[in-house]
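Colleagues,

For the teaching module next term, I've prepared a clean inverse folding example: a structure given as tokens, and then the sequence designed for it. I'd like students to try predicting residues themselves before seeing the answer, so please don't circulate the second half yet.
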């Protein structure tokens, strides 16, 4: 895993475009994974919003690379919550058209179905968790954040975050062992993690 270093964070704070690019390349994939795992359909847009906000606030940012990573996932968490609220309000006002676009390629249909089944299985496993457990595990996995950093983001005590993580992992293990998981679903779960 590529990591963010203190020098790159400092260069970005000074406005170095190459540093911004390096931070984007390093952190956008895990941020996008976190956003997507929370059920946000347009994860690309929300990820872009996260980094626009982060980079706008960069001159005022104080801290090292670990604090920066935590800051990015704090912004991502807040953007996801905002997005979910917005979507919830929007859905109550309009009827969504869920008809899939017709495909011209049989191979792409098969690939799409296989990927969708795996994604649905992984999403179902994640959705089997209590919301607090889900938040903790997703921030641990995608954000690679410490217990203390997650506690700060979620406004909880570190002991509570540890307990939520433990119960969430136990629930996932029980749900995976309770039903056979295909190799493609296991790969998707690993990908989602």
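(Answer key — instructors only)
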């Amino acid at each position: 895993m590529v990591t963010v270093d203190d020098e790159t964070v400092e260069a970005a704070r000074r406005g170095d475009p190459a540093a911004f690019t390096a931070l984007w390349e390093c952190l956008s994939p895990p941020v996008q994974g976190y956003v997507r795992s929370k059920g946000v359909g347009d994860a690309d847009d929300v990820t872009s919003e996260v980094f626009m906000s982060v980079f706008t606030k960069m001159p005022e940012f104080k801290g090292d690379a670990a604090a920066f990573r935590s800051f990015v996932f704090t912004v991502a968490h807040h953007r996801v919550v905002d997005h979910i609220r917005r979507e919830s309000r929007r859905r109550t006002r309009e009827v969504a058209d869920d008809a899939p676009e017709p495909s011209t390629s049989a191979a792409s249909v098969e690939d799409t179905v296989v990927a969708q089944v795996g994604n649905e299985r992984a999403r179902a496993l994640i959705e089997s968790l209590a919301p607090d457990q889900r938040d903790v595990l997703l921030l641990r996995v995608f954000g690679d954040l410490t217990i203390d950093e997650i506690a700060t983001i979620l406004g909880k005590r570190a002991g509570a975050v540890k307990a939520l993580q433990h119960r969430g992992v136990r629930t996932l293990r029980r749900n995976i062992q309770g039903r056979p998981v295909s190799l493609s679903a296991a790969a998707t779960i690993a990908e989602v993690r």
